[in-house]
Amino acid sequence: MSRLSLAALFLSLIPFLYIGCAPVTARPDVDPDLTAKEASIQKRMAVEGRMQKFWRLSEVSLPVLAHGVGLCGDRVTYYLGMDTNSIDNVPKEWRQAYKDALGLDERVKVTRVFAHTPAADAGFRAGDVILMINGEKVEAGDDAYEEFSSQLQEQLDTGETVSFWIERDGAPMTLNAIPAKRCDYAVLMSDDTVVNAYADGDSVVVTKGMMGYVESDDELALVVGHEMGHNVMGHISKKTGNRFIGAVLDGLLAGVTGVYTNNFANAAGMLYSQEFEQEADYMGVYFMERAGFDSTGAPNFWRRMGADNPYAISHATTHPTSAYRYLFLEQCSKEVKGKEREGKELLPNLEELHAASK
């Protein structure tokens, strides 16, 4: 049989293939309008759930950043302690969901005021519409939020009292807020469901998966404090420097052998990795205790981590074993608790830590 005949035969069978695969059950029809309505409900729920997690992260991280100023060197800025937003700052396909969940529109609104912050002391409330900052109008519409953020940061950088003209329940009023200092590192939440958190030298990122894993605000403060430890100790830049040296060696070897690998770069990037993690754990306990969180139960975080990841109990990779971290955090907690009882300032003994890690 020719190829042309085979092709004709195949085409003639296509209708029968579709018939053979067709569903045979009588199913109820779903109204497309109801499907669209359900989609909007689920989007609103997604926004509400995400914002609750992000606000919880902020409630914990703000005191860590504010009370950690003494550990952050010259990386210090000013803050007020309220979450704000406008609809232009939201992806278009999610704008209706944010309108439904948070009441956002084209104006800049306060969506959350965090406890024990300058914004709370000034009397801000969720739903307040910000109209002016120090006599300068806050515009609505496209790019409203970006322009507002620049306006506000410019005023905050002075460290002086910021005067706001706001609208609340349709009535205008004035609020005055005195900015306070905090460590100049952003704490962000990613939508990744993996249980993880990391630092990049300028920010701390906590995944949605980690937000679901931590059992208490104390544990969350430990996680944020740990990543802050990486930032303030300069671990990211040190690792980058180590990788650069390794890459140079890879290049020299390639010049001799004609084959380039990342072996030296990868190995150099892991130099002192466990020591860096130990430093971050140590600094994390100080960050959380200075912020008023209790480190007594902090070691249990790593006991649970070990139970959920059995390989890490006895096998050290770039991180110490979970068994070691449990015991190490116990000692760290005892150290800071002892200083608290003695009325000493909670400052880490970095020289002793470096000597112990050699």
Automatic annotation (TrEMBL):
Keyword RNA-binding appears in the UniProt entry: no
Gene3D superfamilies, per the entry: 2.30.42.10, Metalloproteases ('zincins'), catalytic domain
Cofactor note: Binds 1 zinc ion per subunit.
PROSITE patterns from the UniProt entry: PDZ
SUPFAM superfamilies: PDZ domain-like
Domain PDZ residue range list: 59-139
Keywords: Hydrolase, Metal-binding, Metalloprotease, Protease, Zinc
Keyword Hydrolase part of the UniProt annotation: yes
Cofactor(s) it depends on: Zn(2+)
Domain of life, source organism: Bacteria
Matching InterPro entries: Mito/Outer_Membr_Metalloprot, PDZ, PDZ_sf, Peptidase_M48
Xref: SMART domains: PDZ
Entry similarity comment: Belongs to the peptidase M48 family.
Name the UniProt record assigns to this protein: M48 family metallopeptidase
Lineage: Bacteria, Pseudomonadati, Thermodesulfobacteriota, Desulfovibrionia, Desulfovibrionales
